[in-house]
Sequence to fold (511 residues):
Amino acid sequence: MKQLIYPLFLFIAPFMSLRGEEELPNILFILADDLGYGDVGCYNPESKIPTPHLDRLASQGMRFTDAHSPSTVCTPTRYSVLTGRMAFRTGMRGVFTGAGGPCMIEEGRLTLGGMLQGRGYESALFGKWHVGMTFFDKQGKAINKNGLEAVRRIDYSRAIPDAPIHRGFDHFFGSVCCPTTDWLYAFIDGDRIPVPPTGIIDRGPLPKHAYSRDNRPGMIAPGYSMEEIDLQFLEKSLDFLDAHAKKKQRKPFFLFHSTQAAHLPSFPADAFKGKTKAGPHGDFIFQLDHVVGELLKALERHKFADNTLVIFTSDNGPEVPTVLAMRHDHKHDGARPWRGVKRDQWEGGHRVPFIARWPGRIKANSSSDQTLCLTDLMATCAALTGAKIAAKDAEDSVNMLPALLGEDKGKPIRRYTLHQTISLALAIRRGPWKYLDHKGSGGGNNYNHAGTWGMKQYALAEKAPDAPGQLYNLQSDPGETTNLYFKNPEIVRELKGKLEEFKKSGRSAPL
Fold:
C-alpha cells in the first residue's frame, strides 16, 4: 500500500532540512461560523462592519481569494476539516441539533488532531464540535437522536465515548452542537457534562431583534449564558496558551478555536453591544474580530507568534435571514460579491475568507488566487510537519504549503475541487469552470417560499431552464448568471465524468 499522498513528497524534504524537527511550528486554527466573504473588511471594501484585527492579520500574512468550505453548512464542513475527506462520502444528510450521533468520525480514522499528536503536538479544541457524539440513557442505551425529548433522556453520569478527546485532541471544552441554537445548552469538558441542564431555557429576557432568531427552546444548564459563549471559549483558549507557556517545553501545540459567531442568534456580550453602526449582527462580528485579536495578543505575549502558523476562515457562507436583514437595515452584504448564501451551491454559499500568517515564512501583505478547500488543511499540515498520510486517509486533501510559502510559481495546485450542500447535491470545479450536478441552488428552501427564510427577491432568471445541471465560467461570469450547460457540452461531459469518477473511487486527491 502506498503510504503518502503524492504532493507531500515534493515539499517535506527541503522544508524539514531548513527547520529541523525540533522547530516544528505551532498551529492556531480559528474557524468562524456562518461568516461570509463580504463580512470581513479586507475582502469587502463596502463592509459596514469594522474588523481591524482580521484586516491586520491579512496585512501581516496571506489572503486567499478563492478559498472554499467543503460544504455549504456546518456539520459536513467540520467533518471534512477534521478528516480531509468530503462528508458526502459518509452518506449523512443534514446537521446535528442535540443528542444526535454517533460521531461522524468513525473510530480509527485519522484526524487532523490525531495526525499532529503523532508528530508530538499537544492538541486542543475549544468551542463548537458539531460532528456528533453518543449520549446514553439511564439503561445505558445509546440515544443518537436530535430534538428535545432525546436531550431529556440523557444520563449525565455516563462518559461520552466519541468526544473530541477520543478523536485526536488532548483537551476539549465546548458544545456538542451550535452553542446558542440547539437543544442542549450545556458545556462538555473532556468527555462529560459537569453541569447538566436542569430545565427549559427562558428566552424571555434575551434580546429580540431581526438577528435573535434560530434559538430553540432546549434544556439549559445553570450558569450557561447565551450572551457570553464566545468570551468563555476565548477564556479557555487563552488559559491553554498560558499553561503551554508555563510548561516551557519545546513541544509544539495545535489549537483549534471554534467560534459561535457569526451564527444566529446574534447575541454579542454586553461589552460589544452598540459598538458598531451595523446593528446586533455587526456588533457580533466586531466581537469575533476582538476574539481573534486577543488570541493574537496572547501569541505575542508568550513569544509564540514568530513560530506559529495562524489560519482564520469560516465554515460556510452567511445565513439567509442575516443577509436579508443586513442588506435591508445596513446596506451590508455578507455574501458580496458572490451569488447565493449559506446552503447554496453558488459561490456565496461556500467561498469564504481564508487568511494565513506565519512571520518570516508567509510573505506579509500578500494574496493568492489558488483554489483552496478547507479539506486541504490535513495534507498541508502533514507537509508542514513531516507527518505521513496513508492512501486510505485524507481522501480529498491537497497540500497547499507551496502556495503559503510562495513556492507555487503561479501554477495551479488543485486540478479539481468538489463542493456539496446539506442535501448532498454535488458540484465540481476545474480552473474557471464550475459544474453543478443539479438544478437550482441545491440548498433546500432558500428560494422556495417567501418570508423571513425566502431569497426569492434575489433569485436570478434561469437562462437554460431545461438544463438538468449548471455550468458556469467564473472568470468571465463570476456572478454565475449564465448557465452554459448547452453551449459547452464537452466541458459538461468532462466535469460530470470526473465527478462520477471521484464518487466511485472514494477520493479526489491524487495519490
